[in-house]
Amino acid sequence: MTYIITQYTKSQAAKLGVTVKPSTNPKKKIDVYKDGKKIASCGAMGYGDFPTYAKEKGIEYALERRRLYHLRHKKDNSVNAYYSLNLLW
Description:
Elements: H1 7-16, E1 19-22, E2 28-34, E3 37-44, H2 50-57, H3 59-72, H4 79-88
Antiparallel strand pairs: 1-2, 2-3
Helix pairs in contact: 2-3
């Protein structure tokens, strides 16, 4: 199953100066490209993300999930974590 990239993620990508495409890795949601070169794969397929939660369960639920995501991942400084945080959350 391919992840459908939301408008939220596309607009966040534009702010960061990158482009996003569905991931070539079946375990990931998106691949991040800068100047045509793939720089990251992020978002595990089995988990939700901010725009998905907002659409399916409402904005209040999505904001709480975002808060908890930030708490869980605050010490992860990897490139994949950076783009996951900024594009999906």
